[in-house]
Input
Amino acid sequence: LDEIDIKILKILQENAKQSLEDMSEMLKLPKSTIAYRIKRLESQGIIKGYYAHIDPYALDQDYIVITFVRAKYGKDYHLNLGSKLAEIPGVWGVYFVLGDTDFVVMARYKNREEFMKNFLEKLMSMPEIERTSTQIVVKTIKEAPNIVIY
Amino acid sequence: LDEIDIKILKILQENAKQSLEDMSEMLKLPKSTIAYRIKRLESQGIIKGYYAHIDPYALDQDYIVITFVRAKYGKDYHLNLGSKLAEIPGVWGVYFVLGDTDFVVMARYKNREEFMKNFLEKLMSMPEIERTSTQIVVKTIKEAPNIVIY
Amino acid sequence: LDEIDIKILKILQENAKQSLEDMSEMLKLPKSTIAYRIKRLESQGIIKGYYAHIDPYALDQDYIVITFVRAKYGKDYHLNLGSKLAEIPGVWGVYFVLGDTDFVVMARYKNREEFMKNFLEKLMSMPEIERTSTQIVVKTIKEAPNIVIY
Amino acid sequence: LDEIDIKILKILQENAKQSLEDMSEMLKLPKSTIAYRIKRLESQGIIKGYYAHIDPYALDQDYIVITFVRAKYGKDYHLNLGSKLAEIPGVWGVYFVLGDTDFVVMARYKNREEFMKNFLEKLMSMPEIERTSTQIVVKTIKEAPNIVIY
Amino acid sequence: LDEIDIKILKILQENAKQSLEDMSEMLKLPKSTIAYRIKRLESQGIIKGYYAHIDPYALDQDYIVITFVRAKYGKDYHLNLGSKLAEIPGVWGVYFVLGDTDFVVMARYKNREEFMKNFLEKLMSMPEIERTSTQIVVKTIKEAPNIVIY
Amino acid sequence: LDEIDIKILKILQENAKQSLEDMSEMLKLPKSTIAYRIKRLESQGIIKGYYAHIDPYALDQDYIVITFVRAKYGKDYHLNLGSKLAEIPGVWGVYFVLGDTDFVVMARYKNREEFMKNFLEKLMSMPEIERTSTQIVVKTIKEAPNIVIY
Amino acid sequence: LDEIDIKILKILQENAKQSLEDMSEMLKLPKSTIAYRIKRLESQGIIKGYYAHIDPYALDQDYIVITFVRAKYGKDYHLNLGSKLAEIPGVWGVYFVLGDTDFVVMARYKNREEFMKNFLEKLMSMPEIERTSTQIVVKTIKEAPNIVIY
Amino acid sequence: LDEIDIKILKILQENAKQSLEDMSEMLKLPKSTIAYRIKRLESQGIIKGYYAHIDPYALDQDYIVITFVRAKYGKDYHLNLGSKLAEIPGVWGVYFVLGDTDFVVMARYKNREEFMKNFLEKLMSMPEIERTSTQIVVKTIKEAPNIVIY
Ligand SMILES: [Mg+2]
Ligand SMILES: [Mg+2]
Ligand SMILES: [Mg+2]
Ligand SMILES: [Mg+2]
Ligand SMILES: [Mg+2]
Ligand SMILES: [Mg+2]
Ligand SMILES: [Mg+2]
Ligand SMILES: [Mg+2]
Output
């Protein structure tokens, strides 16, 4: 990854629809070079895809939770549990952490009823779980996971 | 938002580069209808942008942290602190929660040194903070904040 | 529910014995209208009943506790436990919460002995419970659950 | 308080509109005796009033919270804080407890926005508070504070 | 218990060897009255005995601990455990409390080795225990359990 | 301290009124020897006094608390605070410990009102205190601080 | 151990290669005396060996952790667990402590992957463990376990 | 650092007095090569010195503590505090960690009195400290910080 790659990534992480013409002008490089490099970044798996950013609040997904999950201790429990948590509809983030909890789970639902039915009840029937604790997000101040180059 | 809008969003949240031709076929609708609706979703602010999804690990950003921040109690402290946290380079998520902590902060750095210099030292000089506690992410099992329609 | 309903409810939540005459005067409405609306609020289940408010302290019920109950993790455990807790004599409130505990239980007893025999010993033989922690209320500063319209 | 008083209270705590006729039959006592005793219970302050029980959920008050408040240490801080908490609109219960927190506060709001504006922001500007932690009630399993005789 | 009894108890709780002559003079009462009342306080079980107060530090018992014991949840577990804890040599106080722990245990040993062999290892083999946590006393500022009248 | 001293102490810690005759027989030693040794133990400060053991419950002192006190950090704070806590009427034990709290305080009161007035309000006006947490004792399973030789 | 021994130990704990000539001069004692005393300290087991002090950071061992391990309660569990923890490659310190955790474990690894494979996965398959919590060391400010005489 | 360096370090970390002859035989290399490489490892700072390992218990240093220190929040507080902690006699390890505490401090003393005077009182007068909590080590199961190559 050289400096030009970084510049290209920086543009695309904020606007995947930036035209080659504009990028060519911004970077003072021929369009073909930029096109070639983007292809390479894609084939190397550095660019994993392109997505539309939909506002969760606009879709009434305002019951946003961060749940801390403590697994029971035992071989492969953590491994299995991580995958199961990731498959729950509404869950968009699952992080395995060191510390008092094992997993930090990020999820969004339309309301309390959906949260209980789609999330909480599912968790309560997973035998690998020892304990969960849920924090309600009252305000999303920043959510820009697309920004990797800063 | 009718069912067609939802279908369009569902496609775009996973692949912003899906062609109108393909979408037309998938949804059995004329390309013009789809194009019109996408424009409308954009102008309504439901689609907030299009991003390239860059793999943080590919860029060696593997010092990933979740930090819990407790603000001092006082008028406007929480408001100010939220904005300040959001401006720290490397921070991509700031959530205001109810519970034992006030903010859950998500951030990525290349290594411990960067984390300390760019993040921890900045936090330590913010007078609104009473206490922080940081969890190191040892594995990102899922990170798909783009998936809003599920 | 229109504004008149709200005004009627506001009066009745504080004084269920307010006469139709007085209400008619306060609301500048015929008695028959008020009577009709009260009936409707009752049949809609918005007014669930009328209660005498008895002072617990006057009946020497001054061993007042708030108990936090943590259920074992397992399918239907929480559901069953909630009902069982609600049936314990002396328990007047059972709330299922998100966070470090699962249930917040409000109860009143005449003294420590009654509390131990009627409450604590019952809890200790419920297999769904992992842990309880009890806080003694030293002063009830406000207890007005009847006030819903404020 | 003799056994008859207790029986009268037990009836009225569940149905304040029970007629003297019915009570007379239930208790095998003349109506005048019952009427006299009710008056006495009222004048002694044992019956503090009569209220209609309104269903909070029917009024869309489903953002129900239990907040733990820790006061700063200092003369009269606890006393003052208790009164201030009790005056916040939406707060129906304030209990002063021994243990890791000082006050358990029960409150109901229509939604997150109301909760933040009417409750959380008020708390954040009270100088007597060191710390709060809020639990969201996901289900009210029992709420019958009227039941004092059991 | 009248005021004279209280005065007698107050003297004896600090000096069990106070002579009847002195007490007679202090209380302006005949010796026979005092002797009679002491006998009565003994036979009523108000005075449970007389003991010499030995200085633990003088006997090199300076490894003083306060241990918090959390019992497993289950019928009679707490009852049984309380008795078992009380029988451990070196344990002089066992209190059943409400809150995060179930028992507060006070004990004294000559040194770490004695503490481990006589106390900790015994606790570790009690199946009713879920968890213990021990605090080392670095200074006994006051220990006067004999003072009941103050 | 030889074995005979230990035997004498063991008798006196349980019964300060044991007669010299009985002790002489129990220990197979002349009364004069025993009397001499007791005097010596007293003058060495090993025996610090003789107390009547009064039953707190018989005197209606059944509001028994164990309070954990956390001092503010600062030079001499702990020293001063320890003495102040020891002087509160009703407090019979003050232990300076290592760990999450600084002082474990044992106290007895007749009821909640006495506890609040004589204890809690005093604590709340001590500027050296950062935080207290109180556990109510529901049962004293053992309280025999006189037993030093075991 | 007399004062000369202490002086010798003080020199050797910082520099095991100090020559007998230099030590002779520093301590004003014949070389033979010093040599004799060192031998004696070695044979008494007071000097347990001589080590090269290797800088862990120079060997890229900068993923340094302090892990708190809570054992399940049960006879010999703690004993067995202590030994098993001590045998894990990368673990250099295992301390059995009183308090909320049972073992404090110090370990060093080259990176997160090594830490997970060599340490965390091993812990997760030990049946004696109830819970672990890991703190990442961001800076080693002092590490001089060789300094015993100070 | 090649494989031969690693082998040399592995020998010296366990026995700094291993002779060149023995090492030559073990590694099948001329003594001069080994001598040259050791010098290089020393001048590169990879070998930071050689020390005698003295048994703390043999010197009666059996009051061993692990103290968790939480710093007040503020610019440079952590930096200053780390250095101050490292200078306290008896402290051999100071680690700056992420999580609920800021510093983990390892120290050894002869007894409680030394611990209080040399350590605890010093900490209590450091204005940068918000809170400490100390765990007593009851058994050192492993302490081999010299083992870096494993
Ligand atoms: Mg919603
Ligand atoms: Mg990296
Ligand atoms: Mg009572
Ligand atoms: Mg609502
Ligand atoms: Mg000792
Ligand atoms: Mg009482
Ligand atoms: Mg590394
Ligand atoms: Mg010692």
About this structure: The mean pLDDT of chain H is 93. The CA atoms of residues 91 and 107 of chain H lie 4 Å apart. The radius of gyration of chain H is 20 Å.
